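Section 5: illustrative case.
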């Protein structure tokens, strides 16, 4: 069981750290995330994206020609963030940062499981089939479209949760 540790420099040391299950549920329920990758020249690159939290890790997909794919080719270390939409502020809301290494998912069964999770979470807007080692979108006619997306899984090395009266709580894995 992962236990959070409150950083007394940035929070109330007498507060109780949120249980990991609460933070994990927050990650599962989020609709939008931001991923920060590092370009080959060291500059950061941040973009919003959808994804799923499943089996203790964040999963996302990217096209083979996208900037984040080129960045992952050079450096697989990423940060993924999400927060309380509409409630973001200094004394309210919650923000979570997941730090880890993006590892490509190529196993067909794992890809099918993730495609099912995407559909369960986002519905027809993000319906994928698996072709080879990639996701392909399902068109309105039910056919899979051209071009594929590579799927990655980010198991956390560290998760930092901010807000809800505890300040900053860190979970290490």
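Designed sequence:
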């Amino acid at each position: 069981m992962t236990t959070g540790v409150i950083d007394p420099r940035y929070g109330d040391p007498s507060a109780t750290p949120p249980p990991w299950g609460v933070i994990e549920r927050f990650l599962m329920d989020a609709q939008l995330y931001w991923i920060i990758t590092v370009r080959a020249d060291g500059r950061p690159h941040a973009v919003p994206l959808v994804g799923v939290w499943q089996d203790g890790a964040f999963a996302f997909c990217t096209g083979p020609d996208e900037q984040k794919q080129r960045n992952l080719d050079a450096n697989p270390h990423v940060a993924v963030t999400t927060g309380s939409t509409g409630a973001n502020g200094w004394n309210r809301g919650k923000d979570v940062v997941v730090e880890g290494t993006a590892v490509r998912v190529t196993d067909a069964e794992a890809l099918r499981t993730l495609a099912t999770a995407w559909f369960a979470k986002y519905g027809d807007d993000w319906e994928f089939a698996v072709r080879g080692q990639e996701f392909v979108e399902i068109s309105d006619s039910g056919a899979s479209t051209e071009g594929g997306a590579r799927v990655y899984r980010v198991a956390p090395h560290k998760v930092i949760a901010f807000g809800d009266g505890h300040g900053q709580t860190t979970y290490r894995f």
